[in-house]
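Ribonuclease P protein subunit p29
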Amino acid sequence: PQDSEKAKTFVHAFLKRSMPKMKDEAIQDVLTRKAVVLEHYHKKQTKQKRRKTKGFTAKQRRELRLFEIEPEQQRYAIFLPLHELWKQYIRDLCHGLKPDAQPHMIQSKLLKADLHGAIVTVTKSKCPSYVGITGIILQEFKHIFKIITKEDKLKVVPKLNNVFSLELDGFISYIYGSKFLLRASERSAKKFKLKGTIDL
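Tokens:
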């Protein structure tokens, strides 16, 4: 047991620590009314920012040759199974490509579909040397298609100023490359507007 003076000293010191912003007179005033609200100050904790794992830069990717296809792998026959997989993927996407299917519905789905594995032909171009190139799309970038031809030649064809056609189960679709300047991942979320005529 402690005497009253020690108790008062302890209580006063405790309240002083608990309410550091209040003066002694104010604390005494609070005690007389027997209503004490203790303050508790939280130390501000600095939030540690999560470091985002940075991927390779474009320069590093070029130096590591991540997207380059080795010459011994540049053979048309190797990628025919990929084309068969792509055909099945499009049939599933378009619910079978039935004869009574509406062309504009199929076209809208093809615009957003992944084209890796599709066989395409350059039908129109401002550069005549591109016209007639046919092959399987191996890689699609924002501005180009990389196509492997039946002659086992890897062709880099720009999208700009070129019209591509692809055929599947009798349905022929045309891709206007100038309106297709998107990465495959971006294209799936884009809303394409129907236009009457499109020029090169």
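The helical segments are 4-18, 24-32, 58-64, 80-93, 103-112, 184-187.
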